[in-house]
Amino acid sequence: MTQTRAILLNALSLYGVALVLAAAFAAQFVLHELPCPLCLLQRILFATLAIGPILNIRFGPRPSHYALSLLAAIAGAIASMRQVLLHIMPGDGGYGSALLGYHYYTWASPPSSRSQRSCCSTASSRTTAQRCRQPVPSSRR
């Protein structure tokens, strides 16, 4: 990969991170949704994710710069999964408003958690076991 292409791709990744953070701040200030502590942690980790591309643009691409971004991404995924797991119980309304059926913290998590969240947040007229496609234990029949 050429130096110019590496700088271009790192700049695009910085624009992506800036777009995510801008959307989070827009939800906070325009929609008046105060972030919870885990949302603030995710914002910090998204900003930390940008350190790798910034270093790559300034000093040239190095594996250590990508490693910093990778560590921030793993930490962000862990924080996001923690928040999703706090709100995964059926009947829980989640925190804040939803975008396309998912809360903002769910969008920052790995795709597998979104499928589990949608499974457990369907219509409340069905039983918990039906919503999560789990067999009903014999003691509950």
Widest sheet, order of strands:
1-2
Q: Measure the end-to-end span.
A: 62 Å
Computed over alpha carbons, the radius of gyration is 19 Å
Structural class: mainly alpha
Which residues form runs of ≥5 with pLDDT under 50? 112-136
What is the tally of beta strands? Answer: 2
Strand residues, percent: under 5%
Total of DSSP H or I helical runs spanning 4+ residues:
7
The whole-number mean of residue pLDDT values reads: 75
**Could you give a short account of the major beta sheet?**
2 strands, antiparallel
SSE arrangement, N to C: HHHHEEHHH
Q: Regarding quaternary structure, how should these chains be classified?
A: single chain
Structural commentary:
The protein has a two-stranded antiparallel ribbon. It has one domain (3-140). It is mainly alpha-helical and 141 residues long. Mean pLDDT is 75; it is low at 112-136. The protein contains 7 helices and 2 strands; from the N terminus they run ααααββααα. It has helices at residues 3-29, 37-49, 51-59, 63-86, 104-107, 111-120, 128-131; strands at 98-99, 102-103. It is elongated and about 50 Å long.
